[in-house]
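Hey, I was hoping to borrow your eyes for a little while. I'm sending you its amino acid sequence along with the backbone structure tokens. Take your time with it, there's no hurry, and the full record follows here.
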Amino acid sequence: MSTDDRVATPPNPEETFNDFLTYAELLNTPPLARLYIYILQNGPVEIETIKADLKMAHSTTYKYIGQLEEMGILTRAEGEKPASVTVDPIRLHLETEHGDVLATPTLIAAIGQQLAVEDIRVFVERHGIAKLAAALHYTLRVMAGELTQRTAATKLGVHPVEGMTVFTALQDIVEEATTYDPYLERPE
């Protein structure tokens, strides 16, 4: 993934595309995103603790842990008993004809929170993941004092009440993410 230690290495198209696919999988699988963020916040963490804290079935926990490991972002400390796991903070930077996009663990956290925060779940059901990513962008601008929530909702193209509702939910995620997302452009 795109971590600080990879910045100085020459571009590798295969690895770059693998990073993209990894991020896409996290964005499209809310339980996987939730697990990733939990481990990022708490790691190293024992697998039994993950199962208990997230109330995940044994098989589901190991399935997703295996998936994160195959993606190359999870590390198991096998020498320890019981085994613990950690994940790397990842970021995805895309340059597109519509502008640059930087996706960090904060966006993954927002995806995972669909499972627990109804305002985010409803917003994603109505508008999709891309609109949620845009809402996160505007949330950061609101938190930085660059925009009001009403103006941000207009720019986002949603009803002001719907925009303000999702911005408020995302602000909670951003505030928590400041403790674990090294790539977050922190609002001042």
Summary: The chain has a mean pLDDT of 88. The two ends are 28 Å apart (CA to CA). The chain is about 60% helix and 10% strand. The CA atoms of residues 76 and 85 lie 4 Å apart.
